[in-house]
Amino acid sequence: MIKPQLDIPLLTKQFNETLILAILVHGRKHGYQLALEIESKSGGLFTFNHGTLYPILHRLEKEKLISGVWKQEGPKRQRKYYTLTSAGKKYLAAHVAQWRELFTQFFNIAGVIEG
Amino acid sequence: MNRFSSLLNSINDRLEIAQPIKSRILLEIAADLQDAHDFYLGQGHTEEEATRLTQERFLLDDAAIAELAAVHQPLVKKILDRFSLQVQSRWQRIILLLTLLTIAAVSGRVMMTSEFLADASPFVWPVWGTAIAGLLLFLYKFYQLYLIKNHTIRTLRKGVHSLALLGLLSLLFGLSGYFYELLVFGMQLVLPGGSLITVVCTVTDSAEKIIDIHNCYVRTSTVMMASLFVAMLIGLLWYALMNKIAQIEMAEAKSILLT
Questions:
Q1: Which of A98, B37, B142, B170 has the most C-beta neighbours closer than 10 Å?
Q2: What is the CA radius of gyration of chain A?
């Protein structure tokens, strides 16, 4: 299993990665569905260019954290659906724990200023 | 023509990865573009607005393209694909083909003589083995691509790079045989208590030794010549298949962009 490592300069990328994996917990989705669901579930707070979605999806697939399956939809149309693998579930759980730790530390500091 | 063909063409031009992966990525994006377009139409936007909004949201900048390419680019394939793309024009292909055929014909003629094979190194046999394996693999791919025309994009390149590896294997056998023969010959010449370095000084002591040197030259040159010949022929077959595959993939990519 790949061990997640939070890298501060790559936080945005890793943030998107976690969001994608978290959405896939609820079942298989194709690229555009993922983007839409992230937007709708965050009340429009997390919007990102759909173009940036594909490098993340393909990297996660290469790392076997998600798996992509092609389905024929109608006579001319093919779609690629992604599902979370068991390795992906473990990775997500570990990643979420790291995010939690990160934000806890963050608010420990920010909370002082707020208070 | 697809309303997003300019966007897909732009991605196609900038994304430097091998087919069929590129076609599959374009197919994936094309399907998502259509969904997004339908979504914007459903929200009450006009056709033009929906197209514009979709294009804006799916813009793949150079960083995203580079990241996508990096995910799909294994080092070995990168080198092999670049080599096959370097010889693109018709004249370049013809000159390359004629040069290789001339060399193959000349060296092949020499190798078919009985004297050549009579003194061959045993390492010649694995070289012939790779030649037979390469030929069988080529015939299988030829049957798939030209005779039954199985142009399934996902399996198009399957086995083709193994052909290139067989060519490399043939060279490896050739080099191994070359150094093995030199080592065996050198060991025969070493005097008790001496070292391989002293061979050069003692080698011309007798006529027998000179004959041994001649035999060694024959054996080493046989194995090297055979391995180079086989590697070259396999390379030629690989190149021919790669060109055919590139043609099929380009037609496939074009059809994705236009439908």
A1: B170
A2: 16
Rounded distance between C-alpha atoms, residue B159 and residue B22, angstroms: 19
pLDDT band at B88 (very low <50, low <70, confident <90, very high): low
Question: Of chain A residues 45-74, which have a CB less than 8 A from chain B?
Answer: 49-52, 54-55, 58-59, 62, 70
C-alpha distance from B57 to closest chain A C-alpha (Å): 5
Alpha-carbon dihedral sign for residues B131, B132, B135, B137: negative
Q: Taking the CA of residue B232 as centre, how many other CA atoms within 13 Å lie in the half-sphere pointing to its CB?
A: 19
A77-81, B16-20, B113-117: which is most confident = A77-81
3 state SS of B82: helix
| Residue tagged 């798996």 (tokens) | A67
Q: Which is more confident, A58 or B24?
A: A58
**Chain B residues with CB-CB distance to A32 below 8 A:** 31-32, 35-36, 39
d(CA A28, CA A22): 11
Measured between beta carbons, which residues in chain B are less than 8 angstroms from residue A62? 71-72
- The phi and psi torsions of A80 (rounded to 5 degrees) equal -105, 120
Token pair 């173009």 is at which residue?
A51
State the amino acid at position B160 in one-letter form: V
* Per-residue pLDDT tens over the stretch B130-158: 999 999 999 998 888 888 777 776 677 88
CB contact under 8 A, B58 and A59: no
Mean pLDDT estimate for chain B: 79
Produce one character per residue of A2-15: b if its CB has 16 or more CB atoms within 10 Å, e if not.
eebeeeeeeeeebe
Q: What are the chain B neighbours of A52 within 8 Å (beta carbons)?
A: 60, 64
- Mutant choice from A16, A52, A56, A62 vs B, greatest count of B C-beta within 10 A: A52
Which of the residues A13, A29, A30, A32 would you substitute to probe the B interface, choosing the one with the greatest number of B C-beta atoms within 10 Å?
Answer: A32
Is A79 an 8 Å CB contact of chain B?
Answer: yes
DSSP A10: G
Picking from A58, A70, A79, the nearest residue to B71 by CB comes out as: A58
**What is the domain partition of chain B in residue ranges?**
5-73, 89-256
